[in-house]
Amino acid sequence: MRIVDLSRLLPGPFATLCLQGLGHEVIKVEDPAGGDYLRHWPPTLALDGETHGAWFAALNRGKLSVALDLRTAAGRSGLHTLLEGADVLVESFRPGVLARLGLDPLALRDRYPRLVIASLTGWGQAGPLSALPGHDIGFLALAGMFGHAPPGVPRLQWGDLAAGGLVAALRVVDAVAWRQGAWLDIAMLDGLVGLQQTQFAQLAAGAPPDETLSGGIPIYNFYRCADGGFVSVGALEPRFMAPLAAATGGELSGEALSRLFASAPRDEWMSRLGDACVVPVLRPEEVATHPHVAGRGLFTPEGLVHPPTGPVHGKVPGLGEHQGLV
C-alpha cells in the first residue's frame, strides 16, 4: 500500500508511522519553505551522520520526502502525479483548507475512485466546533477524560496518538480492504469519547462514575516505597488479593498497603508480590533497559521506539530528498 501524507506535527505522522509498522510505504509531502515544523523542534538527535529534530526522526524515519507548494499549480500537479499511484491520502488541515487549495476531497474522489482520503482533525469535518483550532488538552477536556478530579496535564497526548493516529491507521486499513475508495472523517474528539465505553455505560445505567479502575479502591492504586519509588497494585481478582492479604496480615486497606510498601525499596516488590499484580512504576529513562522491554525488542539501537503496529527502520529523509517521485 502506498500512502501520500500531507500531515505534519504529531497525529497524522503517527498514523502513517503505524501504517509503516504494518509494512506500507509512506511519501511525506512537505512545504518547501522549511518542511514539517518538527524538523526544527528541539531536542536534536544525531542519526546516520546527520542531526534531526528528535520528534521528527521518531515519527518520520523510513518515509520518503517530497517538497511541494500546494498553493501553486506546479505543486498541485506534483501531488496529482503522486496520487496516480497511491492508495491513501492522509491530511490534517482544518475542514475546507484542501478545497481552498483546489484539492477538494469530493473532486479527488471523482478523479481517483479507489483512493482512500483520511481527513484527521481534532473536532471533525462537521459540527459547531469544526472550524475552531484545537490541541490535545482541549479534546481531552471536552471528551470528559478528566472525570471529576481536578484536571492535570497528562504526559501522553491521548487524543493525538491513540484516539487520532492509531484510530486513523485502523480505519485506513479497513477502508482499503473494501477496495471502494472513501473519504474518512476522523476526529480525535470522536476517538476519545469512543474509548470510554465502560465509563459512559455507567451513566447510561444511572450509576455514578466508576471508581474501581480510577483510584477509588486500595487494591487498584499506587503506593510509595522505602526508596521514594512507587509500585502499582492491580489485585482485582481473589487469587491476586490472597498473596497481598497474606503480606499485610489479612488487611487490604489503603493504610495497610501503604505501610507494607513503605517497608522496602521499589525494586524488591515485583519479586515478592508479582503474583499479586504488583509492578514497579518506571521512570521514562528506565523503560528501554528493563529486561522485559529489552527482550521484546521495542526500541531501535538509537533509542527510538517502534510504533505499536510493528518495527519501523530506515533513515530520516532530508526535505525533498525523493523529489524524483514527481
Would you mind describing this structure in some detail?
Helix content is 37%, strand content 16%. The strands form three sheets. A six-stranded parallel β-sheet has the order 5-2-1-6-7-8, with helices on both faces. Strands 9-10-11 form a three-stranded antiparallel β-sheet. A two-stranded antiparallel sheet has the order 3-4. The chain has 14 helices and eleven strands. With 326 residues, it is α/β, with parallel strands linked by helices. The protein folds into two domains: 214 residues, 3-Layer(aba) Sandwich (Rossmann fold); 62 residues, formyl-coa transferase, domain 3 (2-Layer Sandwich), CATH 3.30.1540. The model has no long low-confidence stretch (mean pLDDT 97). The two termini are 18 Å apart.
Structure keywords:
about 325 residues, alpha/beta, Rossmann fold, formyl-coa transferase, domain 3, 2 domains, 11 strands, about 35% helix
Can you give me a brief rundown of this structure?
The chain has helices at residues 11-21, 54-60, 73-84, 97-100, 105-111, 136-142, 158-178, 188-195, 197-204, 238-248, 254-261, 269-273, 284-287, 291-296, and strands at residues 2-5, 25-30, 44-47, 50-53, 64-67, 88-91, 116-121, 182-187, 220-224, 230-234, 278-280.
What's the arrangement of secondary structure elements?
Elements lengths: L1 E4 L5 H11 L3 E6 L13 E4 L2 E4 H7 L3 E4 L5 H12 L3 E4 L5 H4 L4 H7 L4 E6 L14 H7 L15 H21 L3 E6 H8 L1 H8 L15 E5 L5 E5 L3 H11 L5 H8 L7 H5 L4 E3 L3 H4 L3 H6 L30
Parallel strand pairs: 1-2, 1-6, 2-5, 6-7, 7-8
Antiparallel strand pairs: 3-4, 9-10, 10-11
Helix pairs in contact: 1-7, 7-8
